[in-house]
Amino acid sequence: MDHSGHGMNMDLPPFTLGRGLEFSADPVFLIGCVLALALYGYGVVRLRVRGDKWPVNRIVFFVIGVLSIALVMCTGLNDYGMVMFSVHMVQHMVISMVSPILLLLGAPVTLALRALPVAGRGRTGPRELLLKLLHSRYMKIITHPAFTIPLFIASLYGLYFTPLFDFLMGSKAGHLTMMVHFLAVGLVFFWPIMGVDPGPHRPGYVMRMLELFAGMPFHAFFGIALMMASQPMVKVYENPPASLGIDGLSDQSVAGGIAWAFSEIPSVLVLIALVFQWYRSEQRTAKRSDRAADRDGDQELKAYNAYLASLQARGQ
């Protein structure tokens, strides 16, 4: 397969999983995936050379996250996604709701901050620039729920239910831009909620859960709207190539079912990650309290007991 054509000009045989998984790389995403793995691996090696550890589970999460992007952008799925709404929806859901979660669990920003060298006094290096970006007003805005939740919703309704989607699908550059946008939106949405990297907006765990579930009903309704529609909602998929042997409206219904299902799966994954992070946080807090008690002879408990004794004395 090749990407010489786009949209309805591509004459492909009927979709099968084998054909969908054939290697058919988008050059931009292929280079991006290889570069991401190389940089992450370089950071891990730098830490280990100087005797520092980096959790294996974070490496696994990040590698799987990059491979999930390659799966939908460097295989036949990317070709079929140009002519089949259902396959395109698989691409969209994976790259916006699965890949970001896995990448964020890999903590790439934390790795970069630990691996990059500190610049000399009065100098600004890559590490200092990254820190400046993390603490910038721009980052505070784009990671705030007042921005991330509307952006997440607009990326569905504002794209698929307007002529913008047809315009972007009309060229290879437009399709590439859209996929990069999906990945960026997913990263921005999930980063404040469950990312382990430092960020300007990091609410408590209860608020993170509320942020997560605030956008999911809109996502589910989007899928249901596609499933229940009595006519094609997106013009570019209205008349699939005859070689595929599919009906545009039926394929749209399948796409809606995929969108609806994916509104549940990532929610469960993120919820599990949040509960685990919350548990680990409580454990660390308890250990710090125990160490503090050992250092000061448990003065806090003694003070509390003295307070109770004084209350009892007053009552007598």
Short summary:
The chain has 316 residues and is an all-alpha fold. It is 72% helix and 0% strand.
Shape: globular
Which class of secondary structure composition applies to the elements?
A: mainly alpha
Order of helices and strands: HHHHHHHHHHHHHHH
Number of helices: 15
Strand content: under 5%
User: Over all CA atoms, what is the radius of gyration?
Assistant: 25 Å
Would you give an account of this structure?
There is one protein chain. With 316 residues, this protein is mostly helical. It contains 15 helices and no strands. It has helices at 17-20, 27-49, 56-73, 76-80, 85-105, 108-115, 126-134, 137-142, 145-160, 164-169, 172-194, 205-228, 248-262, 265-296, 299-315. Helix 2 (27-49) packs antiparallel against helix 3. The protein is globular. The N and C termini lie far apart (89 Å). The model is unreliable at 1-9 (pLDDT under 50).
Explain the layout of strands and helices.
Blueprint: H1 17-20, H2 27-49, H3 56-73, H4 76-80, H5 85-105, H6 108-115, H7 126-134, H8 137-142, H9 145-160, H10 164-169, H11 172-194, H12 205-228, H13 248-262, H14 265-296, H15 299-315
Feature tags:
disordered N terminus; mainly alpha; globular; 316 residues
